[in-house]
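Handoff note, outgoing to incoming analyst
You'll be picking up this chain. Sequence as last confirmed:
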Amino acid sequence: MNVEDGEPIRKRQRRCATQRFLVLLVAFGALASAACTPTIQVAPPKEPITINLNIKLDADVRLRIEEKAKQDVEQKPIF
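Most recent structure output, in case you need it:
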């Protein structure tokens, strides 16, 4: 048995192999967890936002308002 620094060579080689394995395992775990993180991007739209309001004012509504205004003026004259 060759002994360097009071430790057998095979035991030292086994410890180095274990350390390399742990380093590779931690590196792989870090890469795997980084690959699974979701990406959130906030970007303005390329085209402007258009809001199309199709509003149709019915003449019937206007007529009702005018009639109601006439009734109010008749009931409570302004002058």
